[in-house]
Amino acid sequence: MRKILFSALVFFSSSNLWALTEFNGEFGYQKQVYGNTKQNNVVTRTYSGAIALYFFNYTALELNFSQEENITTEHNTIAITGTGYSVIGMQNRVKNYNYGIGLRQAFAGKGSWLKPTLSLGYARQFITDQSFYTFQNDASGASFESVDDPYKSRADSVFATFGLQLALTKTMAFRFSVNTIFPAFEFDRAQDNMKYLAGFTWYL
Asked: Under a CB-based contact definition with an 8 Å cutoff, are residues 195 and 26 in contact?
């Protein structure tokens, strides 16, 4: 799937059929700590890239890719009754790869200093979920790790993105976007997976 998307990006971006081509690169980071001594945390990193090929002045074909990694780390001691062992740490890693194709509608032209855009289309999600545990022998204090087999899934989804581009030069703009991906036709779940990203747009 990645090779197909990359080949499509190269082919379409090299074509002379398009009135304008935009490249977007964005990044998002979030960290949340919790627990009595703030010993636990959730870290989310998101990388996103897209190309918009305008076949009309305000309407484009959009191809996009995003990668999100969500890592939850907990340092709590939980005794396992009757075993002489305790769980002293746990880490869960969820990786989400998304490939999308759809339409982007701009609400201002290339020369505008402020350019809102709205994108909507089909997305394919690939999710990997894996957990890591640290156990300790209560008597000796010796510890060891155990790793679950990764759980993998994929799903047909819908993506929607609202973007706001602030022109810096004639060929470059700062971009802020709000993105969501949700199961196809389940529009009531759009707000369950919101991402806030920032990055840059390059015009060709």
From this structure: no
Which stretches does DSSP call E strand in the chain? 20-34, 40-54, 59-74, 78-80, 85-106, 114-137, 143-147, 151-167, 172-183, 194-203
d(CA 7, CA 92): 33
d(CA 138, CA 79): 9
Q: pTM higher than 0.90, yes or no?
A: no
- For residue range 128-165, list pLDDT tens digits in order: 999 999 999 999 999 999 999 999 999 999 999 999 99
Question: Is the Cβ–Cβ distance between 177 and 200 less than 8 Å?
Answer: no
- Residue 111: helix, strand or coil by DSSP? coil
State the average pLDDT for the chain. Answer: 90
What are 138's two structure tokens? 């209560």
